[in-house]
Design goal:
Length: 115
Amino acid sequence: MCDVKLIIAAIKPFKLEEVRQALTEIGVRGMMVTEIKGFGGQSGHTEIYRGAEYAVNFVPKVRLEIVVSDGLAEAVVETIAKTARTDKIGDGKIFVLDVQHAMRVRTGETDDNAL
């Protein structure tokens, strides 16, 4: 097993650039970003469109996937938490998973060297 972590974070979309910049400053060299929809404590909300009220059950979020060495993982989690926080409901979640194996396709480097 390699000493690599996968950090998955769901954050508010308008916080993406601020979080990306903060992560770059601490040494993160790459990440994958996906636009997603979800719900948690917010449980959606209602909106009025053309005079009709309707329920919005899923809220737009951005999913970050970042693979880093074990030694950088805690700093990444702290940076995301601090930078993405608005102190309002729906700020998001962060998950940290162990990575069994990693490979850079272009060079064949593996595990920590693949990052």
